[in-house]
Amino acid sequence: MENVYATLKERGFVSQVTDAAALEALLGRERVACYIGFDATAPSLHAGSLLPLMALSHMQRAGHRPIAILGGGTTMVGDPSGKTEMRKMLTEEQIGEFGEGIKKQIERFIDLDGEKGMMINNAEWLVPLKYIPFLRDIGRHFSVNRMLSHESYKIRLEKGLSFLEFNYQLLQAYDFLVLFQKHGCALQMGGDDQWGNIVAGMDLIRRIEGKPAYGLTFPLLETAGGEKMGKTAAGAVWLDAERTSPYEFFQYFRNTDDRDVERFLAFFTFLPMDEVHRLGQLKDAELNRAKETLAFEATKIVHGESAAERALQGAKSAFSGAGEGAEDIPTTQIPASRLNEGVLIVDLLAEVGLCKSKSEARRLVQQGGARLGDKKIAGIDEKVTSDDLSDGTVLLRAGKKKVHRIKAD
User: Fold this and answer.
1) Is residue 365 scored above 60 in pLDDT?
2) Domain range holding 126?
3) Per the domain annotation, does 226 fall within a domain?
4) Other Cβ atoms closer than 10 A to 294
5) Distance between CA atoms of residues 68 and 125, nearest Å
């Protein structure tokens, strides 16, 4: 069986690693427990979490034992890494509720039976900690000078770093130590912004246990256009179907920049790499088939095959405005009485989220990028009325890629 380190490296997951040769050798000769933490800061994970989730899945598929840590304790503090300001403080009840939703999403990627893989809430050991003993036993191993040299802290110092957040690195390092002691976990993985926290945990294990541990980070993903992966004009792309529908999730990947297709196929599907390379080399109209494959495979992993099939049919239906899959296109119901009077196109574009504002909608219309059904919208004063609907529906389009279904209520 191929060493999972080679798999992760070939697929682009490896950005930084401590002692790569030793880690690769370890992963090739024995079953390794590894972990990634997920703080419960929202009711759902978003597309930015896909890379660590896929990494855990690759580890489990190769026979290793992934541990997903739910940050019930660390969420109370807030990780300053990659943040320009302090996170909103959440109640214990909110964190517990968010954690339940996150667990269901993680279970789509790894088996959490307790043997093949497991999920643990770090509140189990962090919440009962006594402050003075923790400072004496753990805090004495940390150098403030070294902590302040880490990029995540240096960035925040410019705008203000709370003492609460300053403790986050100690808590994450302590997580690694506890997992090492209780579960033999020798590898922590995470995004590049977690490098300082991961190294701090390795150092703590070395100082207290006198044994080696390892760290591996993934690249922080940006699209070829310079945008943060998983962000759209409408906001984050969530893994929760109630927050981002499978159709919208599918469309996000279907609209991938040509330059990102091969890279995203390697990251967000389990397709063999020879197939990834083949699809990535397609050009022009044929590349759309590769994008469709990317969207289908990613949606299948997150939402299941049936949801991916419906999203695919919905995407095909969006070009015809009818037929199988039309119900899966994002839809807004408008009262028939309102349609009888007529609704300004620019108002509707903003209302249904195809444009961020009415001013953006006006610019779209003026540039010729708005369509109602097959009709190009010629002016900002045009309205949609009941006469524009066929069988009670019509498709409103913003550009070539964004579509919304208007339905009379």
Assistant:
1) yes
2) 4-218
3) no
4) 26
5) 15
